[in-house]
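Lab notebook, bench 4. Still working through the backlog of constructs that have no structural model yet. Next entry is a single chain of 317 residues. Request: give me the structure tokens for it.
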Amino acid sequence: MSSKIFKSPLPYIALILANLIWGANFVVAKVTLQEFPPMSLAFLRFALASLFLAPFFYAYTKKGSPRQVKIDKQDLPKLIAIGVFIVTLNITFFFEGIRRTTVVDSAILLMIGPILSVLAGWWFLKEKIFLINLGGVLLGFIGALVIIGLPALLTGTIPSEMLLGNILVTLATVSWVIGAIISKGMLKKYPSMIVTAIAFLVGTLTFLIPAGLEYLKNPAWPFGITMLGLLGLVYMTLLSSISAYFLFEWGLAKTSVGMADLFQYIEPFIATFLAVTILEEKLSPSFLIGAVLIGIGVFLGTLAKESHHRHHKSHRT
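Model written out:
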């Protein structure tokens, strides 16, 4: 692999940059949510992202285009469902969760996504699974329970708000997995750009009413937005939703799913490093134990299951 990196480094640099952007996005989201109401931030983010993706969507669906893609009406319910689970529910749970818990907990809990994807593929899609994968899934679940705070809950030492936040972040991962399972068939039929653009549009439309209600509840909130908040919105839209997506897709096309998978651990490492250095979050012994268990669980649970990593990154929001 090292010889390939030296001969053609740009795809690997693109993959690294994508994961760096996604890793920093945890801290950016945490800080930006201090100024924006959650549903309003989600609406603005995906409305702007949809506008940026619109020209690419048009290029794919335009009549007479060399790569024209025709969307079958019978596929619309599934495409809409992907948007509901991967954007609407995923982002709602994530924003509400990260407001209540720490960045370090959130970053690690979202890592169980590929594990849940493998398990769901086994249950619902009858995909082949190996004993080592089941062992990894078990380790991942134990690690998740440790980080969510089950041991601390039993001893009464975890704040209820933080426990709720960890549960919400876990639900964000679950909703993403459901969407990923639905998207599996659609990605065989349509380019990931089409699926992502529709998902972003669905997210925009579903966030509109909740954002409007937040405004009616507090019409003065836009006047409290600082330059830091605006930069956070720009980062989450242009870098996390758009740039990182294109960087990853391009890097993946030039390498392989297996190669791209090697860089996945950059994301939680960056998120944890920035959370500790910028937000001054602390790493508890239970967090370290849970993180190690999840890390090993992800590696073993997704061994020989590269397709599940493809879903994880292609629909990163």
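Notes after review: The chain has a mean pLDDT of 86. The radius of gyration is 19 Å. Flag for follow-up if needed.
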